[in-house]
Design brief:
Helix content: 25-40%
Distance between the termini: 14 Å
Strand content: 15-25%
CATH class: Alpha Beta
Shape: globular
Bound molecules: S-adenosylmethionine
Length: about 220
């Protein structure tokens, strides 16, 4: 996920990354409100705030992740005009006030779909967030471990979300490379709500809908 977001920062004209142009390009909102779900230790959300100026990234996870998030936020060096905060959010419990009162441009979901038991609550949470921020994009990264994870796409579809872009990054792995094994992929999907999409002016809509083909690319070296 971070490699994907970083590659946009480095190559803003790369056609595979165009869906993010709307957010980060000259016509973007200027200040970005970002919410990360299931932040874990916070590497993706913190990395985002360190890469991009003028954004607020709210990191969320279960209570047990708050201590490490506190620690890592304290060590972070956000880009100018950017800041980080955190909030407890359990997908099973509905939106906490600290999250519900925000309006967001972007939701980040990295490696949160491996447990199919928690997918219904995750999708329900994304749906609740989308009700308040219907124009937001949802960037989901996943490393497929089991076919049961496919239920995520069915549930997202049922909740009105459509994949508007997908990209595959081979995971760097020195061991696999050394022994000639195929590299594993991380898949990145951008979702938007189809009802919201109908209301987006055609120029923006084209930028999203014309990039639906599955693409494979290498993680750029930093
Ligand atoms: C594999 S970790 C991914 C962490 C981080 N996003 C990353 O890419 O390194 C999955 C995260 O989802 C969180 N999670 C799992 N179930 C959750 C729930 N019901 N509500 C909120 N977070 C949850 C876990 O606490 C964990 O931090």
């Amino acid at each position: 996920m971070l490699a994907y977001l970083r590659s946009f920062r480095q190559n803003p004209d790369d056609e595979l990354l165009l869906p993010l142009n709307e957010l980060f390009g000259a016509s973007g909102p200027g200040y970005l409100e970002v919410l990360e779900l299931g932040s874990g230790c916070g590497i993706v959300g913190i990395g985002f705030a360190q890469l991009y100026h003028n954004c607020h990234v709210l990191l969320t996870d279960l209570p047990e992740a708050m201590e490490i998030l506190d620690c890592n936020i304290a060590q972070a060096r956000p880009a100018s005009g950017s800041k980080l905060s955190k909030a407890t959010m359990n997908w099973d419990d509905g939106l906490p006030i600290a999250v519900a009162q925000g309006r967001y441009h972007l939701f980040l979901v990295s490696d949160c779909t491996y447990n199919s038991d928690s997918i219904p609550a995750l999708v329900k949470t994304l749906h609740a967030l989308n009700q308040k921020s219907p124009w937001a994009s949802i960037v989901v990264s996943m490393k497929f471990r089991h076919s049961s994870e496919n239920v995520f796409f069915d549930m997202m579809n049922d909740a009105g979300f459509q994949v508007t872009s997908e990209v595959r990054f081979p995971l760097p792995d020195r061991h696999r490379t050394a022994v000639g094994q195929e590299l594993e992929n991380v898949e990145i999907y951008i979702f938007r709500n189809t009802i919201s999409l109908e209301n987006i002016p055609s120029r923006s809509q084209n930028a999203h809908t014309s990039k639906q083909a599955e693409k494979t690319r290498k993680i750029p070296s930093s």
